[in-house]
Amino acid sequence: MVYRYKCPVWFKTTINCSNHKCKKYTYIALHPSLIVTYSCISPVSTLQNKENYEPRGFQRPILLLYLVTKHQLFHRKITIDDFDIGRPLGKGKFGNVYLARVKKLQAIVALKVLFKSQMEKEGVEHQLRREIEIQAHLKHPNILRFYNYFHDRKRVFLVLEYAPRGEMYKELQRCGRFDDQRSATYMEEISDALMYCHEKKVIHRDIKPENLLLGYRGELKIADFGWSVHAPSLRRRTMCGTLDYLPPEMIEGHTHSEKVDLWCIGVLCYECLVGNPPFETASHSETYKRIMKVDLKFPRIVSEGAKDLISKLLRHNPTDRLSLQSVIDHPWVKANSRRCLPPICPTKSSETN
């Protein structure tokens, strides 16, 4: 039986690894998302010196059950000395992301390292504060968990959930495009995650493949909340996001609401199925024009059901766009999605019944 906890819990135990050559003990990480994942962990001595580090496994099988709750690491002050640093996972304008292991918990995380000088130079300190404030309060299986942060004189460190399969963008580049099943699954997952955000009055405003990660089972996780905003009124005017994903109301400089995210997932669905955004052109001005006219053209590979969904999301008038619940209930999504929901602990009342 898997029980639902209100905080992240890590189980360390012996299981049969999917790699038959590996007879070493394995960690099961039960994230707050309640998706049970596992990976083989390598010895500390090899972790620190290998740039191509991937979790592999300890050298001897041990039967052990170990329980560590969130407060033992994340409710106290932490420093870089609490981590073993592995290979780089990605590079950005303001710093890098590394695979890391929490020494005391033997828990695998992603450590985002940002340089203060670079952020000050670009004037984005407020954006980082906003990202931390928003993401720290979001707990959903399709949103990357933010665990903690700390800083030193030169750097800011964000401790994040590790998504083993990396960026959706790189996966899309590798595959060229996704089939209906995979695209519909992503649409259901991201719609559910955004419904959760909107209920908490959070608008993401920058949904795109580069900001989406893939978990152990390939589940989508919204990762970058740098452009997100907590807007109780759900009305904003700031220009933000990526050109190919900008909705008409942002280009026109009008106030915008959570419905900008509906436009973005319409663009995302198209890009997943086709391999490139719907309004992409060689020049910015032409892209702007196509967005304003909603000049939407589908290649033959796109099914009628997918066309219907995308067309109902990419509407010039925000109020005409399909709701997130309607996206989840759309016949094309229902027929093709293979979403795996996290395990749910039965309540006392249900057990009694």
In words, what does this structure look like?
The chain contains 13 helices and 13 strands. A hairpin with a 3-residue loop joins strand 8 and strand 9. Strands 5-6-7-9-8 form a 5-stranded antiparallel beta sheet. It has helices spanning 44-47, 71-74, 116-122, 125-135, 168-175, 180-199, 248-251, 260-274, 284-293, 304-313, 324-329, 331-336, 348-352; strands at residues 9-13, 26-30, 36-40, 66-68, 83-91, 95-102, 107-115, 146-151, 155-160, 202-203, 212-214, 220-222, 229-230. Mean pLDDT is 78; it is low at 1-71, 228-241 and 345-353. It folds into 3 domains: 9-38, no CATH class; 61-160, 2-Layer Sandwich (Phosphorylase Kinase, domain 1); 167-336, Transferase(Phosphotransferase) domain 1 (Transferase(Phosphotransferase), domain 1). Helix content is 31%, strand content 19%. The two termini are 17 Å apart. The chain has 353 residues and is of the alpha+beta class.
